[in-house]
Amino acid sequence: MTNDGVQSDLKQIVVIGGGASGMFSAANVARELQQKQAKVRVVVLEGTKHTMSKVKISGGGRCNVLHDTTKPISQLLSSYPRGSKELNGLFNKHYTPSDARKWFESQNVQLKTEEDGRMFPVTDSSQTIIDAIENVAIKAGVIVKKQCKVTHIQCQMKENEEINDLNKSKHRFLISYRTNNDESASKIEADAIILATGSSKSGYELAEQLGHTIVQPVPSLFTLSSKEYTKPGNLFDGLSGVSVPYAETCLKVKVPGKKKKKQIVQNGPLLITHHGISGPAALKLSAFAAREFHNLQYHTSDLYINWLPILSEGASFSDDILIGGRKIDFPIRNVQELNDQLWTLTNNIPKKVIASNCPIRRSVSTGEERKTVGLIPKRLWKKIVLHSGFDENVSYAEAPKKKIMTLSRNLMEFQYEMSSKGVFKEEFVTAGGISLKEILFKNMSSKKCEGLFLCGELLDVDGITGGFNFNACWATGRISAKGVCEFIEQEVKA
Predict the structure, then answer these.
(1) Would you say 152 and 209 are in contact if contact means Cβ atoms under 8 Å apart?
(2) From CA 128, how far away is CA 488, in angstroms rounded?
(3) How far apart are CA 402 and CA 241, in angstroms?
(4) 339 contacts: CB under 8 Å, gap ≥ 6
(5) What would the pLDDT profile of 288-328 be if each residue is shown by its tens digit?
């Protein structure tokens, strides 16, 4: 018997962290070893009262479990600011997003794909996903211990040999943890560990104890707040809830030794809020420029919004775009080119009031008829016009050339004053974690410590909103389970 009451011939796997990836890994490793009739016990140590708490609140309680698994993997990988190279091999060779979908379907979880690619259970309840994972874990005999906070992991040499290299030595682990009901430390032994502690500071500390390097964690997926533009009477005042179907955001960052600033650009729908801007165009920028925003302390005036990126895409949209009723069959690539087009309106539609008439429109089909709609919502258009210095009732015939240029700049290169970051719904995503150079992705094993496996948000991998983080979570969890199974089988043979 070991000091935690386990038979000496029984192998023990301890999963530290009962989140999505940890529980998915535990369920899979236990089921696979059970099918092989291996003498193994799988224990999950979770520090809080509940397992899979993030799954519970994901997607507003619906659980955005995956992103459209019919899309090419190369397209899915473009949504990972960090880790796409490593996930490329994982998704293509070891565990595809389709494999994850099939796993849930095998547990009688029916999934649906929405227009934006997000996938949810048809029940629209995150409990469906939680139940599927828990049911597999329970049937496979996984023991879950809640409110058990791991404080230390010690490597114990087999046959009392000295440890010189954790990645080469044959050892067991002695895990110390505390429970809410007992201030004294409890201990549990393990032949293998799956570390799945998410973005918690304690998880990083445990990884460091075992020789790993932590890439500094910083926030990702946040809204871009502006005290200046949400002030009473300023541009976004009264516009909360207004959305632009397709906009572009751009952060310009100084690069040491170079005159030209680096540009980080993202596009998609943009939503104006009480505090600033949100929506995919803002959130994707926050993810892909997570470190740059952190270095700027979330305060910058080098952030620009192009409300009309569709104009510069020319060929793909030219048949639908009109300016002042005239079809545009060439791309408008910059402020000067837009200014030239808007200036023609002083002759083409001279009597139209600028603030009341957005002249940049798209022709859309509505059944047998076609109609035109403004590319910018009416309320936002009016605000941009007034912000450009026009009076409310000025017509195009009365427009000064200088103000037309200002309007053109505010439409294509609006300078946004960011004052802070905001929280996006229930998303808690970080950029950073265990250095990916220290992980063997074919089995999610540690290159620093034999018998240690890693998965989930603990790694320096993160995706944008839309199910991508769960894609990575299921894949790293499943492959870590496979890696542990192979490791335990080798241990038994030895």
Answers:
(1) yes
(2) 31
(3) 31
(4) 404, 405, 408
(5) 999 999 999 999 999 999 999 999 875 454 458 899 988 88
Q: What ranges in 262-399 are assigned the alpha helix state H?
A: 280-288, 290-295, 335-343, 345-348, 378-387
Phi, psi angles (nearest 5°) of residue 131: -60, -40
Structure pTM?
0.91
DSSP readout, 340-354? HHHHTHHHHSTTSBG
- What the block records as the tokens of 127 is 């409990």
Tell me the Ramachandran region of residue 396: left when phi exceeds 0, alpha when psi lies from -120 to 50, beta otherwise: alpha
Strand, coil or helix: what is 21? Answer: helix
Structure token digits, residue 67: 């992103």
Tokens of 58: 């994901």
CA distance 380 to 277: 13
**Residue 278 near residue 424 (C-beta atoms within 8 A):** yes
Which burial class, exposed, middle or buried, applies to 89 when counting CB atoms under 10 A from its CB (0-12, 13-18, 19+)? exposed
Q: Distance between CA 298 and CA 205 in Å, rounded?
A: 26
Contact (Cβ atoms closer than 8 angstroms) between residue 474 and residue 129: no
Q: Round the average pLDDT of the chain to a whole number and report it.
A: 93
**Edge-to-edge strands of the sheet including 111-113?**
66-67, 118-121, 111-113
Q: With residue 139 as reference, give the H or E element that holds it.
A: helix 126-139
**What pLDDT digit, counting tens, does each position of 164-175 carry?**
566 655 689 999
What does the pLDDT read at residue 365?
A: 73
Question: What is the rounded CA–CA span in Å between residue 76 and residue 470?
Answer: 12
Residue 206 gets which letter from DSSP?
H
> Checking phi first, is residue 297 left (phi over 0); if not, alpha (psi -120 to 50) or beta?
left
| 70, burial (CB in 10 Å: exposed 0-12, middle 13-18, buried 19+) | exposed
